[in-house]
Structure formats: C-alpha cells, structure tokens
Design goal:
527 residues; six-stranded mixed sheet; binds copper (II) ion; mainly beta
C-alpha cells in the first residue's frame, strides 16, 4: 500500500474569514476525503456547477458534484492519466467557460472562449490529464468577462501527481498537513467587507490591484504545519498583481527564511534551487520546500519591489459588444465605468503585502537532506535550424496593450503552426510598457534566454542566459519585463492524436486579466 500522503487545502468560503484554517489532509492513494475537506478527485466529478453566491459583492464559486456529495470551492486532484468527464452547468447571469490552465487539451475542451456556455446552459467536458505532475488550475475564459469572473472567486486548483512527485514527498519525509496547495489572490477590502469589481480606466490600463491577499479565498489565512519540510504549491491567482514571494520568521524579528524552488508551472525541476525570493506573476505557479524546523511562525509575504509600470498617459475603457447583453455580477463592473480608486483599499503593484502564515508545532527529527535530483527533466534545448517566430508587445495610448499592434478578434487566426513542429518564439516587450505575464494555451514551453532585463528581475538572474530561477522549468506562463526580449522553445507535439484531429485553435495572451479582456490576445491554429 502506498503510504505517501497528499495534503490538500480547504478553500474557505468567499468573504472575510480571518484566521480560518487552511489545511485538511487526505491521502490520494487510496483516496479518502475526510468530512469538511474540499478535495475532489477529477475522476469522481459528475457535474461542475458555476454559480453566484453573493449578488451584492458579486462573489461566485465552483461546486463539484460527485454524485451525492457536493464540494464547494473544490481543489481537484488527479494522477497523471486520470480522466475528467463531467457536465459543466453555468448558473451565472453571464456566459462562461472552464479553461484548465496548463493542460494539453483539444480546442473543444480548452474553454478558451470560442464556444462560451450561455447563462443557464450546460456543456459536457471530457479529457484525459496528460501533463506532468504539478499545480494547474481552472478558471473562466469568456472574452470580455474573464477578469470580473476570476476576481469573483472562480479560480480553482488542480493538483496532478505521478511517481516522481510521490517519490519527492517520501524523500522530504512530509507529514500530514505539510503539503499545501494555495491560490493567492488580492481584493479590495474596506470596513471588513470585500468591495465589488468596479475598475476605473486606470485599473483597466494597469490592472486591478487590491489591498489584501486571499489564500484559497480566506483573508488573513494561516495553516498549522509540523516541524520538518513543508511543501507549498502556489498559484498567483491575482488579476494583475505581481508577487515577489518571500518568507519571514515571525519569532525571530522577521528575519528572512530561505527556501528551495522545486518546480514551476509544468512540474518539477531537474534539481532544487536555493532561494530567498522569487517572482510569481498572474497565472504562474511555483512548487517550493521550506524547512520550518526550529521556527514557530512563518509569514509568507510579497516583498516590496519596483513594478516597472513604464506606460504612462493612457486611458482605457474596455468596450465589448457582448457586455451590454448581460448583467454584471455585482454593481457597475464594466471597465471604465467604475469610480476613481479609493486610496484606502488600494495597494499599488509592487507594494509589500502579507499573504498567509504557517504556524509550526512540534519538535521533530531534523529534516532530511533534499534530494539532489527531483525529476528527469532535460535542459532546455534550441531546435536546430529553427527560424524564430517574432512577436512584439506594444503600448498604444488609445488602445492599450497589444500583441503586434493588433487588438483581439475572435474570428482571426494570427498564424498557423504545423502539428509536431518545434519552434523558437522571440518575443520583445516595449520599453514603455509594464510586465506582461504571457500565457500559451494547450502547450508548454521552455525559456532559452532573456536579454535587456532591467529593474528588480535583473539581479535575480542566475544563469548566463539571463534566465530567472523559474525559467529553468516547464512553463505555460512567463513574464516579460519592459524592454526585455525572450526566446522560448515551443513544442507543438500533440499527445493523443485522435482527440486532436483537424485544425485546432489556441490562444496566446497576457494573463494580466484586465489586459486580456482589453484585447491583448491572439489566436493561432495548429494544423
Ligand atoms: Cu499585460
């Protein structure tokens, strides 16, 4: 019998839930969900309900129906190879989709917004989880409504495991409660209440920034952990905020706590990297290990940094023809219609932000040494003879942020690539810009090199190629700082040929959700 434990995290109900516990433990193999846990194995889900629970604040949630048992705010767990076969029910007053961010899926299952589910309608969603073990997530992607719906709480986690992943848990000697999966978001909180999503023109241009962090839906969250290694799989689920993740020992004058990067968006690195801070932008994930032995309380924070918002002067009111046909989730929420920012519930990008706390109990044995090798991941390699496909990220004072000067159109195919092609993408960000976390649907990629990095990321480069620690893993979302050029190796091999027959449309877009709804997207086709 497999004794290794997988530990999930219960998502608190939307709203201000100070000091709510974060963790509950379950074993994945064999799977036993204790009462109150919010972990749902993907293969057991029959319906995935998308519903609004608070029309005043516009809060929404996912509910997984396991055929008798209903789990709100579920954290989905899967072993590589498991199947998802469920009906998605849209009970929102707006169209929605379910996009499984990071998974290799056919267009029909990708939820990219080509075929949104109308209010009151349902759609069958069936696929096999083919990806490496890692933290993936699911969220709405209906064009023009994405930022509002994700901000409303529709951001669920999917933890995929496999043999390498389980071997790591065993090597770390993880005890129940010491493996956590967390979605970190931010919200505007005033007088103890979550403010609805009412972005101003400035918010639409730079992104929506709150003043408080939510961890799995809870503000001021804390998790009890035991002495030894703690493994954290973290998603930046903020609409727009970049996180410079670090840890402080609250029992030791706030001294920094070092940690190890174990993995990125698409699973484990080849070897762990010791770090003191790491950038995590919207849509990105990190897998890290912290030795909490001898400590009593550790605070996870986003450290202060220069966010490099170099774009100035633009005013942006997003106008989607479809928006006028549907009500908002709360009060006025169309970009550009909101009131000016209230300084009391706004913390700029790059401001220091408390995220969550780990409360340590017990005096265990010393934590075992980290394994020198974590996975069989090869070093990123440039395909021989590839001509780079060039893209530019632009800023236009009238139109906002664009890819190759072109606002998104649902019916446009920007370019086509051949099935199984291995390409190099050269992407350059404008110097009068801001950081853009660019996300590729359907496929993962490797970062080959960075050039002309300035600002706080530059000193974190650990490699002659200019790459950051997170660039050494498998990625589906990568941040480009202003003025930077990135070279990516993209592999368009499609697993499961029969499921992917015929032309498949995918998207490449900015995961700052205000930019995404503001047309910073392009479609491409795989033929
Ligand atoms: Cu952007």
């Amino acid at each position: 019998m497999n004794r290794r434990r997988f530990l999930g995290v219960g998502a608190a109900a939307a709203g201000v839930a100070a000091c709510s516990p974060l963790s509950s433990s379950v074993a994945v193999t064999p799977l036993a969900v204790p009462p109150g846990a919010s972990v749902a194995p993907v293969s057991a889900i029959r319906r995935l309900i998308v519903e609004r629970v608070d029309p005043v604040a516009g809060r929404c949630r996912y509910v997984a129906d396991l055929g008798g048992q209903q789990i709100a705010h579920p954290i989905l767990v899967a072993r590589r190879g498991d199947r998802f076969d469920a009906i998605v029910e849209n009970r929102l007053p707006q169209p929605t989709t379910v996009h499984f961010h990071g998974l290799a899926l056919a267009e029909a299952q990708d939820g990219a917004g080509f075929d949104a589910i109308a209010p009151g309608a349902s759609k069958a969603l069936r696929f096999e989880v083919k990806n490496r073990a890692g933290l993936y997530w699911f969220h709405p992607h209906p064009h023009g409504f994405t930022a509002e719906q994700v901000h409303a709480g529709l951001a669920g986690l999917l933890v995929v495991t496999d043999a390498e992943d389980e071997a790591l848990d065993a090597a770390l000697g993880l005890v129940p409660g010491n493996r956590l999966a967390l979605a970190v978001a931010d919200a505007r909180v005033a007088s103890g209440a979550l403010r609805p999503y009412t972005p101003s023109e400035e918010d639409c241009l730079h992104g929506w920034f709150g003043n408080r962090a939510l961890a799995n839906g809870a503000i001021g969250a804390q998790a009890p952990v035991s002495s030894g290694w703690v493994r954290l799989q973290l998603l930046n689920a903020c609409n727009a905020r970049g996180l410079l993740l670090g840890f402080r020992d609250n029992g030791s004058d706030g001294a920094g706590v070092p940690f190890h990067l174990l993995g990125t968006d698409g699973g484990l690195l080849a070897a762990p990297i010791p770090l003191e801070q790491v950038f995590l932008y919207s849509g990105e994930r990190v897998d890290i290990a912290i030795d909490v032995s001898g400590r009593r309380e550790i605070a996870a924070v986003s450290l202060a940094f220069d966010p490099r918002h170099q774009a100035r002067g633009g005013r942006l009111a997003h106008r989607h023809p479809a928006r006028g046909n549907f009500p908002t989730l709360s009060t006025e929420t169309v970009c550009g219609a909101g009131a000016a920012r209230d300084a009391a519930d706004f913390l700029p990008d790059g401001g220091e932000l408390a995220l969550f706390r780990l409360r340590v109990s017990g005096i265990g044995k010393p934590a075992p040494a980290l394994p020198a090798r974590l996975s069989s991941l090869p070093e990123a390699a440039e395909p021989a003879g590839a001509t780079p496909r060039r893209m530019r990220l632009d800023f236009d004072e009238r139109l906002g942020f664009l890819i190759d000067q072109t606002p998104y159109r649902l019916d446009e195919i920007a370019f086509s690539v051949g099935r199984g092609a291995r390409e190099v993408w050269e992407i350059r960000n404008s110097p009068i810009s801001m950081p853009h976390p660019m996300h590729l649907h359907g496929f993962s990629f490797r970062v080959l090199r960075r050039q002309a990095t300035f600002g706080p990321a530059r000193r974190l480069a650990i490699h002659g190629s200019g790459r950051l620690p997170t660039d050494l893993g498998v990625k589906d979302t990568v941040v480009l700082w202003p003025n930077e050029t990135l070279w990516l190796a993209v592999d368009f091999t499609l697993p499961g040929e029969t499921a992917f027959s015929g032309r498949q449309r995918y998207m490449f877009h900015c995961h700052n959700l205000e930019h995404e709804d503001g047309m910073m997207m392009r479609n491409f086709a795989v033929l």
